Amino acid sequence: MADKILQINPEQARNLFLKKQLLINPELPEGKAGALKAIENLGYVQIDTINVIERSHHIVFLTRCPDYNQKYLHELQAKDKKIFEYWAHAASFIPMKDYRFYISHMGRKPKKDSWLDKWIREHRSLIKMVKARVNNHGPLAASDFKDVKKRRRGPWWDWKPAKMALETLFWQGDLMIKARRNFQRVYDITERVLPKNVDITKPSEEQEKKFFVKRALRAMGVATENDINKYIGVSGKLNKWINQMLKSKKIVKIEIKGIKKPYYILKDDLIALKKNKTTLDSKVRFLSPFDNSIILRDRTSALFHFDYSLEAYVPKTKRKYGYFCLPILWQNHLIGRIDPKADRKNRILIINNLHLEHKKINYTKFIPALTRALKDFVDFHNCEKIELNRNIPAKISHKITI
Q1: Which residues contact 207 (CB under 8 A, 6 or more apart)?
Q2: Helix spans in 185-266 (H)
């Protein structure tokens, strides 16, 4: 007789997920140690270039670490060597202690006869020259290499050949990102970037795949097969290993009331879920569009009944909420969206749109929490005041005092 599948309610699932994502009463040390603990819990933090406000990775840390300072990320990467850059869900900062589980991906060759495979074969001498220059000179950025005049334009954001060679060497693991200079990557030979005590033993396929299953579940609490496969994209399909861990009872299959798909949970988390009752804090959090907690849009829709998409790449006339709209998390619900912009020259944080859509908002409690969150956001962006757009509902704007 098959074991009865445990069913939990959506609120239990959300609470566990948000606690794992450090979005409910995060228990983190102060300062840089807190930022490191956050990325080690999450598994990665995605890097993005859009800077209408602070870049996404800084917002992800701010949301979890109230005393976060932008310098922490630079120090963790360039000085302490506690994090490194590579592809996870996308281009990301990753805990250095996870380095060995990415080695096999660095060793993979591009698909035969793909444009990348052809480019590498056609530019072997350039790749060799670029690596030799970094080896002999020391850390270099793409801007330290000259472009080629009248070159034929191609894919990859029209990168110049030297930049493409640097990126190829980076993907292959021959170079690493030593630091960021004005957000531009600075490359160096891998052996010079890796700390001496890091484990570089290549894991077996089973070790690697089961690591990524556990890594995903530790960050999400409960997750479908699709969630687990996509949380860290380079992990590949993990269904086989999920089934193995299910048979060995390392993970457990559960159901969430009202959702047809099966979910999985680590055995230890299931025990804790049954014992612990979650206490919600009153903090309002603005989530980056690339925040780990909402990057899997189907999951966000299923658990929060909140459909979200980034409108930065949508024509202005077709945008509904704003260019860089951030979901608003309060307690254990996504209750709306805010579209901020930092006017750095005049030191004004402009709120272009504030759209609340949850039907059961207690405004008496919410407005003070929102005001505090906006004040913190103004300070974080080194602004002196806030400007609310006229289209923001008066019942909200008139009550916000900063």
Answers
A1: none
A2: 190-193, 205-220, 225-231, 239-247
One pLDDT digit (tens) per residue for the chain, 402 residues: 456 888 999 999 999 999 999 999 999 999 999 999 999 999 999 999 999 999 999 999 999 999 999 999 999 999 999 999 999 989 999 999 999 999 999 988 888 888 889 999 999 999 999 999 999 999 999 999 986 655 454 544 456 899 999 999 999 999 999 999 999 999 999 999 999 999 999 999 999 999 999 999 999 999 999 999 999 999 999 999 999 999 999 999 999 999 999 999 999 998 888 777 888 999 999 999 999 999 999 999 999 999 999 999 999 999 999 999 999 999 999 999 999 999 999 999 999 999 998 888 898 999 999 999 999 999 999 999 999 988 787 778 777 877
Please tell me the number of Cα atoms within 13 Å of 182 on its side-chain side.
3
Domain annotation for the chain: domains and CATH numbers:
6-101+200-275 (no CATH), 108-172 (no CATH), 309-397 (3.40.630)
d(CA 108, CA 219) in angstroms, rounded, equals 26
Query: Angle at CA 198, nearest 5°, toward 76 and 87?
Result: 65
Taking every pair of Cα atoms in the chain, the longest distance, rounded to a whole number of angstroms, is 72
CA distance 340 to 330: 18
CB 63 within 8 A of CB 285: yes
Q: Which two tokens stand for residue 120?
A: 């590498």
* CA torsion through residues 262, 264, 267, 268, sign: negative
Residues 3-19 as b or e (16 or more Cβ within 10 Å = b): eeeeebebebbbbbbbb
Instruction: Say how far apart CA 27 and CA 34 lie, in whole Å.
Output: 9
Name, in order, each residue with C-beta under 8 angstroms of 159's C-beta and a sequence gap of 6 or more: 142, 167
Distance CA 20, CA 217 (A): 9
Structure-token pair, residue 392 = 């923001």
